[in-house]
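Milestone 3.1: sequence recovery, worked example.
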């Protein structure tokens, strides 16, 4: 348990109390909290709080206050990364993407620009398999993880679990609600394989909610925009509108690194 912050009663406030308050601050900061597997912090000694002396504008005297240690953000970031589902993709960074040809340089610059501008739009990389779409979108997800929650889902397994969540006898729609409301959702390989009417209906509900609530959505797919429109024009239209300039289509099997010597 984290020790409760020390308090100072109103009757104790006077200018002569400065040394006493500073001593209480020193004693508080010397206390050790409980050791945790989350993060062993040498600064706060696992209390997750830092005390400091401050002259109160209300009482015109010295009091002790506490603030969260910087380790709290680190712990939250680690937790979000673990829960994101990105796994080994967490290790990917923009600098690790080899951009030799012009189309690769364009993709890399697009992602850099997206990250630097805060990621308020959606991002979609469509087309050729093996062009680095997953790598680049993972780097964006990793950058956004430093600020907010991110969820990574691969289309086939996502739909399998989502249909159980919504349509089974014991379905709760908990997963659907989570996917609708997570601040950042990254869907990899959208509409991969056979796509049913049920798949399209669920995906419209999911993306339409995120469209209306302006939640960041990152998408990769081997389908081009005209192909997505044939599957469902409403879904394609929402993706195109929300992405704006952050939509790229990669055409040509020669761009698949897996086929290169």
């Amino acid at each position: 348990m984290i020790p409760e912050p020390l308090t100072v009663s109103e009757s104790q406030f006077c200018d002569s109390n400065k040394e006493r308050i500073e001593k209480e601050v020193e004693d508080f900061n010397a206390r050790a909290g409980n050791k945790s597997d989350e993060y062993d912090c040498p600064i706060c000694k696992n209390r997750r709080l830092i005390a400091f002396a401050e002259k109160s504008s209300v009482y015109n005297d010295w009091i002790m206050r506490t603030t969260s240690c910087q380790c709290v953000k680190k712990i939250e970031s680690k937790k979000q990364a673990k829960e994101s589902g990105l796994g080994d993709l967490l290790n990917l960074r923009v600098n690790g993407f080899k951009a030799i040809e012009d189309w690769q340089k364009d993709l890399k610059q697009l992602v850099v620009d997206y990250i630097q501008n805060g990621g308020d739009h959606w991002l979609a990389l469509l087309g050729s398999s093996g062009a680095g779409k997953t790598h680049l979108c993972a780097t964006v997800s990793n950058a956004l993880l430093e600020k907010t929650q991110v969820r990574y889902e691969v289309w086939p397994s996502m739909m399998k679990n989502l249909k159980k969540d919504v349509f089974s006898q014991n379905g709760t729609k908990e997963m659907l609600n989570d996917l609708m409301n997570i601040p950042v959702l990254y869907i990899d390989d959208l509409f991969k394989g056979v796509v049913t009417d049920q798949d399209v209906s669920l995906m419209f509900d999911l993306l339409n909610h995120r469209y209306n609530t302006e939640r960041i959505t990152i998408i990769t797919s081997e389908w081009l925009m005209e192909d997505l429109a044939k599957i469902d024009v409403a879904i394609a239209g929402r993706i195109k509108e929300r992405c704006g300039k952050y939509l790229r289509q990669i055409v040509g099997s020669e761009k698949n690194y897996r086929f290169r010597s």
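The chain has nine helices and seven strands. Residues 96 and 206 are 32 Å apart (CA to CA).
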